[in-house]
Amino acid sequence: MPTLGEDTERMLREVAPQVLGSIVRRYRDFAAAEDAVQEALAAAAIQWPKQGVPANPRGWLVRVALRRMVDHVRSEAARRHREEIVVSLVPAEDQLVLAADEGAPPDSRDDTLEMLFLCCHPALSPASAIALTLRAVGGLTTAEIAKAFLVPEATMAQRISRAKQRVKDSHVPFATRGDDVATRLGSVMQVLYLIFNEGYAGTSGRDVVRTDLSKEALRLARMLHRLVPDESEVAGLLALLLLTDARREARTGPAGQLVPLDRQDRTRWDHNAITEGQALLERAFARGTVGPYQLQAAIAALHDEAPSTDETDWPQILALYGILDRMSDNPMVALNLAIATAMVHGPAAGLTRLDALERDARIQGHYRLDAVRAHLLERAGNREAAAVAYRRAAERTASIAERDYLLVRASEVARDSG
Amino acid sequence: MKYMLMMNTPSGGPYEVASWPTEDLRRHIQFMKDFGERLAASGELAAAEGLAGPDQAKRVRAGNDGRPITDGIFPEAKEFLAGYWIVDVESAERAYQIAAEASAAPGRGGKPLNMDIEVRQVMSAPPVDLD
Hints:
The structure holds two protein chains of two kinds.
Chain A lengths: L5 H22 L2 H22 L5 H26 L25 H12 L6 H12 L4 H7 L4 H18 L7 H23 L10 H17 L4 H14 L25 H17 L4 H14 L8 H15 L2 H15 L1 H11 L9 H13 L3 H14 L3 H18 L1
Helix pairs in contact in A: 1-2, 1-3, 1-4, 2-3, 4-5, 5-7, 5-8, 6-7, 8-9, 8-10, 9-10, 10-11, 10-12, 11-12, 12-13, 13-14, 14-15, 15-16, 16-17, 17-18
Chain B lengths: L1 E7 L13 H20 L3 E6 L8 E4 L5 E4 L9 E8 L3 H12 L13 E5 L10
Antiparallel strand pairs in B: 1-5, 1-6, 2-5, 3-4
């Protein structure tokens, strides 16, 4: 049996979420829409190799999926009618027969964007939004998503289906107007950032880097940037992901162990990604409104440009974290501000900032606080206290790679002090 | 047949390893990593998890209103489950052999730790029809 070429498969992956978006937008029934799109994709896999790829593949898929959906809604409506429930899922204009070729497919740009808005809806928990986005927009299988998050497939399937149900129940309008767009774009950016981070700094489990998730987040961020090229924060997010991902190769050693920024072999950084990120950032800055993603990207760019930790433009980084800190009230930003303070004004000044953070309930007991303290104590020459702090950080992290790194550091500074 | 191999934290507290010479600690970490990879490569590894430190461990039971009552932190000397492997093997003997390998993980000076590994069969046999 003839199969679809690689290019066609790639194209299908790109248009599938648009097709799904188009159907969900009309019917709001996520599960049924997904079934309809799956059937349309299956039909394409059978018909296209024989008959050739249609001139407008997306339109073809939308039409076939809509036909399936109409069948589904009709049988559903008939069932409901029998049960004498006077609710119809069918939008008024579709209660008439919808001919296969009727109606031009709506704008594909809006469909993908609305799909993202829907998947990253604030009514969903971050974990649900991430899973739904990867499934419905990223086109990953449930098994792939489960593997990436190290949970059984059944658990992930349940999480996704609950998320779909919640979207269906939430009755949130799909409106894409004014303020709402900005807020929902914010949710989308946060979800993409979380997906990237899960891949880059996996919060649980054995591997330091789960590349697939980072790659997927990058792909989605690129797509989002293409959809809304004038949104400077979206450009900032894409730049941040590129400038951070550029260091991925250097971030793990030969035995898979974690290598911190100050010990990385900077020749292994991806200079194409750095150049692309810098260019994006410059264009974004030129447009005016500066937000947290652009600031973080600017900090990442300063690290990427420096030949070593000591030759890094720390005063500039300190200034940028200062702005971020006033903008965001985020204890993780405050923690980075403490590091930059130490690099500019000495470890004692950084440690003073950490003391203030210890009273912040949001970060109290977090291993990062202990790890930074350990690092600053080590820089201050207080190795005994540094060893204690490294060990306490090791006790508190949930990442095996990070725990191993912190234990080794504890052992190293303890030996040097004795 | 599936067996769960349970490893407790070594005596002297869960993070006593931090006071080992760095090279010994590196060797120990590398051994554990290789061990997991060997099991995965042989197709015998069904699951494995390492547990976070007992620092934040809590003992929980329901109060009268069904709400959780938590209890912790625990004394340093107490032994804690550090992690487990679930292996899918042909015989109990093979499970014991794997457990012995883990038990001999290198400690200070590369000397085998010979720690206790608890081996338990996982209930996974199909039900027998009863007439």
